[in-house]
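Re: the 43-residue chain
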Amino acid sequence: MNKLNPGDIFPDMRLQLVGGGSLSLPGDITSPMTVVLFFRGHW
């Protein structure tokens, strides 16, 4: 997978949420400026 560069379009992906359900990125985000934090949790 290649890194994103400024101006690149974010690839479509679906994430499973901890509390249930899922989130589609970038489809479910309504703001043009968004920060997404990924936490790997405890191994």
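The two ends are 24 Å apart (CA to CA).
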